[in-house]
Description:
Elements: H1 3-21, E1 37-44, E2 52-60, E3 63-68, E4 78-81, E5 86-89, E6 91-96, H2 134-140, E7 143-148, E8 155-163, H3 169-172, E9 173-183, H4 195-225, H5 233-242, E10 248-252, H6 255-268, E11 272-276, H7 284-289, E12 294-296, H8 312-323, E13 327-329, H9 346-355, H10 360-366, H11 369-374, E14 392-395, E15 406-411, E16 414-415, H12 421-434
Helix pairs in contact: 4-5, 8-9, 9-10
Amino acid sequence: xxxxxxxxxxxxxxxxxxxxxxxxxxxxxxxxxxxxxxxxxxxxxxxxxxxxxxxxxxxxxxxxxxxxxxxxxxxxxxxxxxxxxxxxxxxxxxxxxxxxxxxxxxxxxxxxxxxxxxxxxxxxxxxxxxxxxxxxxxxxxxxxxxxxxxxxxxxxxxxxxxxxxxxxxxxxxxxxxxxxxxxxxxxxxxxxxxxxxxxxxxxxxxxxxxxxxxxxxxxxxxxxxxxxxxxxxxxxxxxxxxxxxxxxxxxxxxxxxxxxxxxxxxxxxxxxxxxxxxxxxxxxxxxxxxxxxxxxxxxxxxxxxxxxxxxxxxxxxxxxxxxxxxxxxxxxxxxxxxxxxxxxxxxxxxxxxxxxxxxxxxxxxxxxxxxxxxxxxxxxxxxxxxxxxxxxxxxxxxxxxxxxxxxxxxxxxxxxxxxxxxxxxxxxxxxxxxxxx
Length: 437
């Protein structure tokens, strides 16, 4: 077969094979809210205030307009009885590639990183696939919001805070950019005597430093010239960090990486967020002093070192709480098989922390209001508060318990379809076995 024929054959095979590999989901995004919705009789978990038993919440035009014990029903309101149910703010996955990765073993379904290691201009939200099969699965677990981040080995690119419902990435985006992601662990040599790795680290440091200094000069030039446009997209991304419009979101687990990142951010007066944070408790005073929050990369993690206690990852949230360090818990632990497909387990990562000492109310906060505060969207989401988006879930029990099911959900007042490939297959094979086949 000649080269043209080979290319045509491969293209034909891919055309027919790909739909079976990565079919889009069948869920239709929710329609905008057109009439008031009153949900009453439920246990309300506002997060930023005490739990309300047999409470009522009112949703109007996509916002929460009232919450309490006794609320009058507006004319034409849809009244929903929720006796015995629990209502929480939509859960927030604080660091994920959901929408950027479908099947890890099939590279054509993965768009989480660009070629090269220096990509500050990359914008994660433009690559998000609204039809990902993993999004409905995450929603069914209560995860309605996510901090979507690009991957990579050094300067990864810009992240976005997104809603898990919408026809397009534009409809899904709540805040973009929400951070500039850098893999700081990649700059630290694994062995103390590794001269080559230390040299590579120094080269990366120098290059990143030059970029930052260049961005500072360009920012000053624009201020003097009343010019806010740069033709260099990489530089423009860094300038947002320099101006403190956007935080630097640094992947760092080891103490040396965390300390180096904090020192660098402090010297350049940058806003900083640590992702991973395995050794964060060892740097607690430093993190507290500079008010650097930590996005914990899940609790389902193995110890980083051979001599670490087996429960190091399980107890990290409680150790940070006691140390006074702000934190949120994620559900997509690095290196854990499946990646974005594990976002559905977010509440159980928080539940694991409860089993190892973290108070339950702090666990719920760590997957709702805390990530919203850290990522700069707490004025819109994260708690059941008057004026915030009507983004919430109704569950038939404690959201941290595995047997609990999410029975209803709204994003900005739009009713969300909670079916998914999981529920479709459940119904399919339930019929099969009921028929005796």
